[in-house]
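Consider the tokenized backbone below.
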């Protein structure tokens, strides 16, 4: 007599074979059978069985992506009490299907997936990283094509005066990386809503994710501006974002960088590098006498300094690009700090940045 686990594994294998061979053309039968497989097997403690579940969903998605996504959505909605780890598994399978067949999805399927993933991501306020990250990744995948619909959903949960869910901010940041041309046109409204939230963020966890978002928003904006000939809106200019970025800079540098929490300090310095390129030229020149010593001071506070060096290189490059004269005054301090880093072998500064900065203004 076969064990229950053996029977489940056999059933899962049959589901894989059926989907691969295209035997799932009878939609009602396929949905019922696959939903039963999920219900019976997704909570099995055997990792091999769990892998078969995900494999079945992904294999079905190869021939019928909308069918597979519909099964996943239906199962998650019908099994509201299914534990977080299993929900995350199903969401990861959905992400795979979306990424592999994004061009084949219609608007109705995309909307259903967006609403499901958004609900999964924000269902509970506390962080349940694997589950919420899996839901966020689904939104990012759909957002590569349906950015407008994804942003409509996210902005409904990113309202003025209300501190948003951690993963709403994280998803906005990820979207700005995965779909630069689609996301940058939304950034003026996102930044105007975000700025008052920075002052309301009292916990380091939220401060870190805001820093990450500002870093990625700045990087995406710089990429957009560097490729205006391909951009959907070639009228976008750096000064469109300058005032908001400076307001955010003021909070990050003067209020968050002095934190005792190392993770927050590193998140701040990673954001300051790309943000420096978007600051108004006069403001950057005004801030350099404080900004450079503030960044250099982090070398003494962190054993791993690669992020400090990268940010410093970006700030120096920004300063050179606006013809800063402050660098001449700061030269001795900069060289002493960099010499120490090179001598200790603890971190590296991009030599291309330093060399570009050197001959341009410091000779």
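A designed sequence for it:
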């Amino acid at each position: 007599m076969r064990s229950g686990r053996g029977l489940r594994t056999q059933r899962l294998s049959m589901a894989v074979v059926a989907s691969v061979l295209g035997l799932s053309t009878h939609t009602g039968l396929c949905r019922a059978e696959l939903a039963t497989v999920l219900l019976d097997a997704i909570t099995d403690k055997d990792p091999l069985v769990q892998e078969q579940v995900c494999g079945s969903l992904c294999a079905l998605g190869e021939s019928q992506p909308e069918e597979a996504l519909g099964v996943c959505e239906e199962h998650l909605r019908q099994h509201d009490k299914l534990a977080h780890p299993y929900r995350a598994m199903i969401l990861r399978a959905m992400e795979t299907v979306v990424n592999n067949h994004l061009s084949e999805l219609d608007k109705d399927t995309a909307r259903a997936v967006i609403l499901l993933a958004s609900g999964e991501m924000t269902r509970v306020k506390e962080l349940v990283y694997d589950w919420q990250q899996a839901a966020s990744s689904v939104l990012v995948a759909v957002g590569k094509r349906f950015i407008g619909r994804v942003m409509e959903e996210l902005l409904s949960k990113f309202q003025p005066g209300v501190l948003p869910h951690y993963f709403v901010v994280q998803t906005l940041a990820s979207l700005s990386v995965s779909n630069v041309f689609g996301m940058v046109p939304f950034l003026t409204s996102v930044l105007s809503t975000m700025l008052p939230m920075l002052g309301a963020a009292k916990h380091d966890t939220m401060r870190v994710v805001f820093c990450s978002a500002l870093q990625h928003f700045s990087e995406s904006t710089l990429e957009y501006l560097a490729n205006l000939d391909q951009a959907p809106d070639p009228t976008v200019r750096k000064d469109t974002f300058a005032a908001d970025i400076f307001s955010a800079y003021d909070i990050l540098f003067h209020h968050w960088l002095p934190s005792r929490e190392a993770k927050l300090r590193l998140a701040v310095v990673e954001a300051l590098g790309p943000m420096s390129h978007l600051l108004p030229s006069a403001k950057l020149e005004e801030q350099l006498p404080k900004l450079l010593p503030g960044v250099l001071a982090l070398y003494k506070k962190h054993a791993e300094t690669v992020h400090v060096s990268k940010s410093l290189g970006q700030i120096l490059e920004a300063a050179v690009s606006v013809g800063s004269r402050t660098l001449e005054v700061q030269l001795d301090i900069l060289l002493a700090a960099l010499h120490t880093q090179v001598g200790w072998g603890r971190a590296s500064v991009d030599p291309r940045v330093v060399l570009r900065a050197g001959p341009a203004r410091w000779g």
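The mean pLDDT is 86.
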